Amino acid sequence: MNGIYWLPSYPKSGNTWFRIFLNNLLSNKDEPADINNMDVNTPIASARGLFDEWVGYDSSDLTMDEIDNLRPDLYRLYASEGNQVKYSKIHDAYAELEDGRKLIPKDVSLGAIYIIRNPLDVAVSFANHSSINFEKSVSRLCKKDFASCQTANIMSLQLRQKLLSWSGHVESWTAQTDTKIHVMRTKT
């Protein structure tokens, strides 16, 4: 069976912890999964290196919109490799591209496990992770068009991710009807 189970969450919501659990489950090895090497079983959909490898040229030669327009087809390619179910971490909101296509292609989506965390806890963790103050972190979580990794003069290891506000992100995934979704709430 080919297809992708998406592991969406707003950043700093417990997605990495869940990926460690899932990697340990999928690897069936005696030693625990390495937090720095989880892309084999559960790659992040916005990984610049994987994008460059799949496309065959450097993403730094493309605009962010051009990259976004290629991503659905790359997810189809990823889903078609081998004869097994795939899992992919994703922070992007469930959104449409400028041409009306969905970033997450329905035809290869088997379902999603949405990880939700209290936004107050997310704000604290996001502030620490981003080396910003709490007020700026809260402002980002409330910004309706917030995106990460979109600074033009800095080449991030990840592609731009359109997050929206925290509540907009949650609603984008939980209200969509294209793929089955299971919501898991984290406790901190």
Number of strands: 6
- Rounded Rg: 16 Å
pLDDT averaged residue by residue? 91
Order of helices and strands: EHHHEEHHEEHE
User: What shape does the CA trace take?
Assistant: globular
Cα distance spanning the termini: 36 Å
Structural class comes to alpha/beta
Helix content: 25-40%
Largest sheet: 4 strands, parallel
**What fraction of the residues are assigned to beta strands by DSSP?**
15-25%
Description:
The protein has 188 residues and is of the alpha/beta class. The protein is 36% helix and 15% strand. It has 6 helices and 6 strands, in the order βαααββααββαβ. The chain has helices at 15-27, 48-55, 64-80, 119-130, 134-142, 166-174; strands spanning 3-8, 85-90, 109-116, 147-148, 161-162, 181-185. The strands form 2 sheets. The chain has a 4-stranded parallel beta sheet with strand order 2-1-3-6, with helices on both faces. It has a two-stranded antiparallel sheet with strand order 4-5. The longest helix is centred in the middle third of the chain and has 17 residues, at 64-80. 30% of the residues are buried.
Offer a concise description of the structure.
This protein is 36% helix and 15% strand. It is built from 6 helices and 6 strands, in the order βαααββααββαβ.
